[in-house]
Amino acid sequence: MTSTRVRPHVARVLERTRAVLFVFDGTTCDLFSGVDTAAIAYGIRDRLFAQGHRMSLLTAIATDPLWMLAYAHGVSRDHGIEAEKTVRDAEMAAALTAVPTPGTDEVLQACQASGRRVAVVGDTSSAAMEAYLHAHDLRHLVGPIIGREQRPSSQEPGVALARQAVKALDAEPSNCTLVSLSPHGMSVAAEAGVQAIGVVSKHANRKHLANVGGSVAVSSMHQLAGALTTVSVTDAFETSPEQL
Protein backbone atom coordinates (compact mmCIF):
# COMPACT_ATOMS: atom_id res chain seq x y z
CA MET A 1 0.00 0.00 0.00
CA THR A 2 1.38 3.40 -0.96
CA SER A 3 2.10 6.02 1.67
CA THR A 4 -0.90 8.12 2.64
CA ARG A 5 -0.83 11.75 3.69
CA VAL A 6 -2.14 11.73 7.26
CA ARG A 7 -3.47 14.76 9.07
CA PRO A 8 -1.43 15.59 12.20
CA HIS A 9 -4.31 15.08 14.65
CA VAL A 10 -5.07 11.67 13.13
CA ALA A 11 -1.38 10.75 13.20
CA ARG A 12 -1.17 11.61 16.91
CA VAL A 13 -4.00 9.18 17.65
CA LEU A 14 -2.46 6.41 15.54
CA GLU A 15 0.96 6.86 17.14
CA ARG A 16 -0.67 5.89 20.43
CA THR A 17 -2.76 3.08 18.96
CA ARG A 18 -1.48 -0.36 19.87
CA ALA A 19 -4.91 -2.01 19.67
CA VAL A 20 -8.07 -1.30 17.68
CA LEU A 21 -11.65 -1.92 18.81
CA PHE A 22 -13.60 -2.43 15.63
CA VAL A 23 -17.35 -1.86 16.02
CA PHE A 24 -19.16 -4.66 14.19
CA ASP A 25 -22.63 -3.72 12.99
CA GLY A 26 -22.63 -0.49 11.01
CA THR A 27 -18.84 -0.36 10.66
CA THR A 28 -17.66 -3.79 9.56
CA CYS A 29 -20.95 -4.29 7.74
CA ASP A 30 -24.62 -3.38 7.79
CA LEU A 31 -25.74 -6.69 9.25
CA PHE A 32 -29.47 -6.41 8.66
CA SER A 33 -29.39 -4.59 5.33
CA GLY A 34 -32.44 -5.74 3.37
CA VAL A 35 -33.83 -7.64 6.38
CA ASP A 36 -37.23 -6.85 7.87
CA THR A 37 -36.03 -6.27 11.42
CA ALA A 38 -39.52 -5.26 12.56
CA ALA A 39 -40.61 -8.84 11.87
CA ILE A 40 -37.98 -10.07 14.34
CA ALA A 41 -39.24 -7.69 17.03
CA TYR A 42 -42.85 -8.66 16.33
CA GLY A 43 -41.91 -12.33 16.59
CA ILE A 44 -40.72 -11.75 20.15
CA ARG A 45 -43.84 -9.70 20.92
CA ASP A 46 -46.16 -12.37 19.54
CA ARG A 47 -44.51 -15.11 21.62
CA LEU A 48 -45.02 -12.99 24.73
CA PHE A 49 -48.67 -12.44 23.82
CA ALA A 50 -49.14 -16.17 23.17
CA GLN A 51 -47.83 -16.95 26.64
CA GLY A 52 -50.31 -14.60 28.29
CA HIS A 53 -48.13 -11.53 28.78
CA ARG A 54 -49.67 -8.10 28.24
CA MET A 55 -47.79 -4.92 27.43
CA SER A 56 -48.38 -1.26 26.65
CA LEU A 57 -49.26 -0.13 23.13
CA LEU A 58 -45.88 1.63 22.76
CA THR A 59 -44.11 -1.62 23.60
CA ALA A 60 -46.31 -3.65 21.29
CA ILE A 61 -45.45 -1.48 18.27
CA ALA A 62 -41.68 -1.39 18.94
CA THR A 63 -39.74 -2.41 15.83
CA ASP A 64 -36.20 -2.69 17.25
CA PRO A 65 -35.29 -6.36 17.91
CA LEU A 66 -32.69 -5.46 20.55
CA TRP A 67 -35.18 -3.26 22.38
CA MET A 68 -37.71 -6.12 22.42
CA LEU A 69 -34.97 -8.51 23.51
CA ALA A 70 -34.16 -6.29 26.49
CA TYR A 71 -37.87 -6.05 27.28
CA ALA A 72 -38.24 -9.85 27.21
CA HIS A 73 -35.32 -10.20 29.62
CA GLY A 74 -37.15 -7.81 31.92
CA VAL A 75 -40.28 -9.97 31.86
CA SER A 76 -38.53 -13.15 32.97
CA ARG A 77 -35.35 -15.14 32.55
CA ASP A 78 -37.09 -17.78 30.41
CA HIS A 79 -38.64 -15.17 28.13
CA GLY A 80 -35.25 -13.52 27.76
CA ILE A 81 -33.59 -16.80 26.80
CA GLU A 82 -36.29 -17.50 24.20
CA ALA A 83 -36.03 -13.99 22.74
CA GLU A 84 -32.24 -14.24 22.65
CA LYS A 85 -32.51 -17.35 20.50
CA THR A 86 -34.90 -15.58 18.13
CA VAL A 87 -32.53 -12.64 17.65
CA ARG A 88 -29.40 -14.81 17.47
CA ASP A 89 -30.95 -17.05 14.78
CA ALA A 90 -31.82 -13.95 12.73
CA GLU A 91 -28.29 -12.59 13.17
CA MET A 92 -26.72 -15.88 12.14
CA ALA A 93 -28.77 -15.94 8.94
CA ALA A 94 -27.96 -12.30 8.17
CA ALA A 95 -24.23 -12.85 8.83
CA LEU A 96 -24.00 -15.16 5.82
CA THR A 97 -25.38 -12.56 3.38
CA ALA A 98 -24.20 -9.24 4.87
CA VAL A 99 -21.90 -7.25 2.59
CA PRO A 100 -18.66 -5.87 4.12
CA THR A 101 -18.23 -2.11 4.34
CA PRO A 102 -15.80 -1.18 1.54
CA GLY A 103 -12.25 -1.08 2.88
CA THR A 104 -12.88 -3.27 5.91
CA ASP A 105 -10.43 -5.93 4.77
CA GLU A 106 -7.81 -3.26 4.03
CA VAL A 107 -8.09 -1.81 7.53
CA LEU A 108 -7.81 -5.21 9.21
CA GLN A 109 -4.83 -6.15 7.06
CA ALA A 110 -3.17 -2.80 7.83
CA CYS A 111 -3.65 -3.41 11.56
CA GLN A 112 -2.01 -6.81 11.30
CA ALA A 113 0.85 -5.53 9.14
CA SER A 114 1.56 -2.67 11.56
CA GLY A 115 1.48 -4.91 14.63
CA ARG A 116 -1.75 -3.53 16.04
CA ARG A 117 -4.05 -6.04 17.69
CA VAL A 118 -7.75 -6.04 16.83
CA ALA A 119 -10.91 -6.88 18.74
CA VAL A 120 -14.33 -6.85 17.12
CA VAL A 121 -17.01 -5.59 19.46
CA GLY A 122 -20.74 -5.05 19.17
CA ASP A 123 -24.23 -5.49 20.56
CA THR A 124 -24.56 -8.56 18.34
CA SER A 125 -24.15 -12.19 19.37
CA SER A 126 -20.54 -13.34 19.32
CA ALA A 127 -21.57 -16.39 17.29
CA ALA A 128 -22.98 -14.22 14.50
CA MET A 129 -19.90 -11.99 14.40
CA GLU A 130 -17.69 -15.07 14.29
CA ALA A 131 -19.77 -16.55 11.46
CA TYR A 132 -19.58 -13.31 9.47
CA LEU A 133 -15.79 -13.04 9.80
CA HIS A 134 -15.32 -16.66 8.76
CA ALA A 135 -17.69 -16.24 5.80
CA HIS A 136 -15.58 -13.36 4.48
CA ASP A 137 -12.20 -14.90 5.33
CA LEU A 138 -11.44 -12.18 7.88
CA ARG A 139 -11.30 -14.19 11.09
CA HIS A 140 -7.52 -14.64 10.99
CA LEU A 141 -7.11 -10.85 11.10
CA VAL A 142 -9.06 -10.48 14.35
CA GLY A 143 -8.34 -11.44 17.95
CA PRO A 144 -11.08 -11.31 20.62
CA ILE A 145 -14.73 -11.11 19.58
CA ILE A 146 -16.83 -9.38 22.22
CA GLY A 147 -20.59 -9.79 21.76
CA ARG A 148 -23.57 -8.64 23.77
CA GLU A 149 -23.71 -11.76 25.94
CA GLN A 150 -20.34 -10.74 27.44
CA ARG A 151 -21.52 -7.49 29.03
CA PRO A 152 -22.89 -7.05 32.55
CA SER A 153 -26.62 -6.42 32.20
CA SER A 154 -26.44 -3.45 34.57
CA GLN A 155 -24.14 -1.40 32.32
CA GLU A 156 -24.71 0.62 29.15
CA PRO A 157 -24.04 -1.87 26.32
CA GLY A 158 -21.49 0.00 24.21
CA VAL A 159 -19.32 1.21 27.08
CA ALA A 160 -19.33 -2.15 28.88
CA LEU A 161 -18.41 -4.01 25.69
CA ALA A 162 -15.59 -1.58 24.89
CA ARG A 163 -14.16 -2.09 28.37
CA GLN A 164 -14.47 -5.85 27.99
CA ALA A 165 -12.57 -5.64 24.69
CA VAL A 166 -9.74 -3.64 26.28
CA LYS A 167 -9.51 -6.26 29.02
CA ALA A 168 -9.52 -9.13 26.51
CA LEU A 169 -6.67 -7.47 24.60
CA ASP A 170 -4.73 -7.03 27.87
CA ALA A 171 -4.17 -3.42 26.84
CA GLU A 172 -4.20 0.01 28.44
CA PRO A 173 -7.30 2.02 27.49
CA SER A 174 -5.15 4.98 26.44
CA ASN A 175 -3.41 2.75 23.87
CA CYS A 176 -6.68 1.55 22.32
CA THR A 177 -8.70 3.22 19.58
CA LEU A 178 -12.32 2.51 18.76
CA VAL A 179 -13.28 2.72 15.07
CA SER A 180 -16.90 3.49 14.24
CA LEU A 181 -19.06 5.13 11.59
CA SER A 182 -21.47 6.58 14.15
CA PRO A 183 -21.39 9.54 16.55
CA HIS A 184 -22.65 7.17 19.24
CA GLY A 185 -19.46 5.19 18.85
CA MET A 186 -17.45 8.33 19.51
CA SER A 187 -19.40 8.94 22.72
CA VAL A 188 -18.95 5.32 23.82
CA ALA A 189 -15.19 5.59 23.32
CA ALA A 190 -15.00 8.79 25.36
CA GLU A 191 -16.91 7.24 28.25
CA ALA A 192 -14.84 4.04 28.09
CA GLY A 193 -11.61 6.04 28.21
CA VAL A 194 -10.29 4.99 24.81
CA GLN A 195 -9.39 7.02 21.73
CA ALA A 196 -11.77 7.15 18.77
CA ILE A 197 -11.58 7.46 15.01
CA GLY A 198 -14.81 8.16 13.17
CA VAL A 199 -15.18 7.15 9.53
CA VAL A 200 -17.31 9.52 7.45
CA SER A 201 -20.31 7.85 5.81
CA LYS A 202 -23.69 8.74 4.36
CA HIS A 203 -25.08 8.62 7.90
CA ALA A 204 -22.51 10.87 9.63
CA ASN A 205 -20.23 13.63 8.37
CA ARG A 206 -16.91 14.83 9.77
CA LYS A 207 -18.63 17.46 11.93
CA HIS A 208 -20.70 14.77 13.66
CA LEU A 209 -17.74 12.48 14.29
CA ALA A 210 -14.84 14.76 15.22
CA ASN A 211 -14.09 16.31 18.61
CA VAL A 212 -16.44 14.09 20.62
CA GLY A 213 -14.27 13.56 23.67
CA GLY A 214 -11.18 14.12 21.53
CA SER A 215 -12.22 11.91 18.61
CA VAL A 216 -10.85 12.46 15.10
CA ALA A 217 -12.34 11.60 11.71
CA VAL A 218 -11.16 10.19 8.39
CA SER A 219 -12.99 10.31 5.08
CA SER A 220 -13.13 6.57 4.36
CA MET A 221 -12.04 3.11 5.44
CA HIS A 222 -9.54 3.15 2.57
CA GLN A 223 -7.96 6.31 3.98
CA LEU A 224 -7.85 4.78 7.45
CA ALA A 225 -6.07 1.71 6.07
CA GLY A 226 -3.47 3.93 4.43
CA ALA A 227 -3.00 5.93 7.61
CA LEU A 228 -2.52 2.78 9.70
CA THR A 229 0.16 1.65 7.28
CA THR A 230 1.88 5.04 7.16
CA VAL A 231 1.91 5.89 10.87
CA SER A 232 3.91 3.61 13.17
CA VAL A 233 3.26 3.17 16.87
CA THR A 234 5.54 5.44 18.90
CA ASP A 235 7.10 3.78 21.95
CA ALA A 236 7.55 7.03 23.86
CA PHE A 237 4.95 9.74 23.62
CA GLU A 238 3.47 12.47 25.72
CA THR A 239 -0.22 13.13 26.17
CA SER A 240 -0.21 16.76 27.10
CA PRO A 241 -3.39 18.78 26.53
CA GLU A 242 -1.72 20.54 23.59
CA GLN A 243 -1.31 17.22 21.79
CA LEU A 244 -4.85 15.94 22.33
Oligomeric assembly: single chain
CATH topology tier name of the largest domain: Rossmann fold
CATH superfamily of the largest domain: HAD superfamily/HAD-like
Going across the major beta sheet, what is the strand order? 3-2-1-4-5-6
Approximately how much beta-strand content do the residues carry? Answer: 5-15%
Q: Would you state the CATH class of the largest domain? A: Alpha Beta
CA gyration radius, whole angstroms = 19 Å
What's the number of helices? 11
* SSE arrangement, N to C: HEHHHHHEHEHEHEHEH
> Low-confidence segments, ≥5 residues, pLDDT <50?
236-244
Determine the N-to-C terminus distance: 28 Å
Indicate the CATH architecture of the largest domain.
3-Layer(aba) Sandwich
Tertiary shape:
elongated
Proportion in helices: 40-55%
Give average pLDDT, whole number: 91
Main beta sheet: 6 strands, parallel
The helix/strand class is: alpha/beta
Q: How many domains make up the 3D coordinates?
A: 2
Number of strands: 6
Please characterize this protein's 3D structure:
- There is one protein chain.
- The protein is of the alpha/beta class and 244 residues long.
- It folds into 2 domains: 8-30 and 99-230, Rossmann fold, CATH 3.40.50; 37-95, no CATH class.
- 46% of the residues lie in helices and 10% in strands.
- It is built from 11 helices and 6 strands.
- It has helices spanning 8-15, 37-50, 57-60, 65-75, 77-95, 104-113, 126-135, 157-168, 183-192, 206-209, 221-230; strands at residues 19-23, 117-121, 145-146, 176-180, 195-199, 216-218.
- It has a 6-stranded parallel β-sheet, sandwiched between helices.
- Strand 5 (195-199), helix 10 and strand 6 form a beta-alpha-beta unit.
- Helix 2 (37-50) packs parallel to helix 4 and helix 6 packs parallel to helix 11 (221-230).
- It is elongated, with a radius of gyration of 19 Å.
